[in-house]
Amino acid sequence: MKKLRIMTVFGTRPEAIKMCPLVLEMRKYTDYIEPVVAVTAQHREMLDQVLRLFAIEPDYDLNIMTSGQTLYDITVKALLGLKEVIAKTQPDLVLVHGDTTTTFAGSLAAYYAQIELGHVEAGLRTGNKFSPYPEEMNRKLTGSLADFHFAPTAVSRENLLKENVPESHIFVTGNTVIDALNTTVQKDFVFDDPVIMQALASGKRLILMTTHRRENLGEPMRQVYRALKTTLEQHPEAAAIFPVHKNPKVREVVQAELAGTDRVYLTEPMDYEPFANLMNHADIVLTDSGGIQEEAPALGKPVLVLRDTTERPEAVTAGTVRLTGTGYDVVKEETCRLLEDPAYYRSMAEAVNPYGDGRACERIVRAVLSAKGYPVAPPEEFKGC
C-alpha cells in the first residue's frame, strides 16, 4: 500500500511537548507512514528547546515569530506559510494540536487545500468564547473543520457529540502529554540552575507557581502574588519557586509584589525537561496553565488553578484540581489548607489521574491507519486510569 503522508503542524512549546511524542510514534510505522513535520515557530526559543529534547528536526520551519507580534500577524503569516508547505508536500492528512493560533491557521490551511484534518486534544470547552482567549475559539473553529477528533477523555467526547460531531469520527485516546511526561521525569535528574538547587536544599515544602494568562494580567496576578506572600508569612515551613514568564507585564507585577520576599525563589522560564522534573519535586502547584492541570495530577501533585473557568473539568471532578480563580482570599485559604490539613492534601494528591496512561500516541496512530484501511488493529479507547 502507498505510504500515508501525514503532516504535523505546531508552533509553540505546549504543542511541541504534546506533538513530538506523536511524531516519534509515527516514525515506528515505516511501512505505512511518511511523517512530515512543519513548525511555524510562533514561539521560537521555547519551541526549539522541546525539539532538541525529543531530537526532532522539522522538515519545514516558517520562523514567523517577531517582536510584538499580534494574533493578526501570527494568523496571516502561518496561513500563508502553510499554504506553500502544503502545496509542496501534498499531505494526505494534516494533524494539529489543541488551541493555539498556529492550530487554527493550520486547520484553515488544510481546509482550503481540501486535505483531511485530525485534531489532537479535541473537544475541550469552557463555553465562554473569551475565556481563555483566543484558545476557546481556536479549538472550536478547528473542531468545525476536523475530520478526525482525538479526544483525550470521555468528557471531551461528550462536548463534541453536543456539537453534532459524528460519533464515528471521535476517538478517545488519553492525552499525549502523559506520553511526554513518562519519558521526561527522572528520579535522579540533576538541575543546573543554582536558584532551583537552593530551593530544593532548603528542605521546605515547595509551592511551584506559574502565571501567564492574558486574562490574569494586572490586578488578578497582583492578588495571587499577595496571597502567596501572606501564605508564606503564616507558614515558615513552606517556600515558593516561581519560573517567571518573559512577558514584561507579568514581570512588572512579580517584581513589585514578590522581589526580595523571603523564601520566594524567582527564576527564569525553564525548558520542559527541568520544569517537569521540578514539578515532580514540588508539594503544591499554583498555576493558570492548561497543560500543567494534566501533568501535575499525573505526578500526584495537588493543583490550584488560578482561573475562573477550565476546559479540563475531569481533574476537578476527580479531585486532583481546585478551581480557585485569582481572588486573594480564596487563593490564600486553599493554599494554607493544603499546608495545614494532611487529609485534605492526600485527598488531592492520591486522587486518580483522569488524563492518560502513556499510550495516547499509539492510539492516535492506530486509529488513523485502521480508518484508512491499513492492516493495523483499531485501538481500544482510553477509559481513564
From TrEMBL:
Pfam families: Epimerase_2 (PF02350). InterPro entries: UDP_GlcNAc_Epimerase_2_dom, WecB-like. Keywords: Isomerase. GO terms for molecular function: UDP-N-acetylglucosamine 2-epimerase activity. SUPFAM superfamilies: UDP-Glycosyltransferase/glycogen phosphorylase. It is an enzyme of class 5 (isomerase). Its EC number is 5.1.3.14. The keyword Secreted does not apply. It comes from the Bacteria. Residues 32-368 form the UDP-N-acetylglucosamine 2-epimerase domain. PANTHER family: UDP-N-ACETYLGLUCOSAMINE 2-EPIMERASE (PTHR43174). Belongs to the UDP-N-acetylglucosamine 2-epimerase family. This is UDP-N-acetylglucosamine 2-epimerase (non-hydrolyzing).
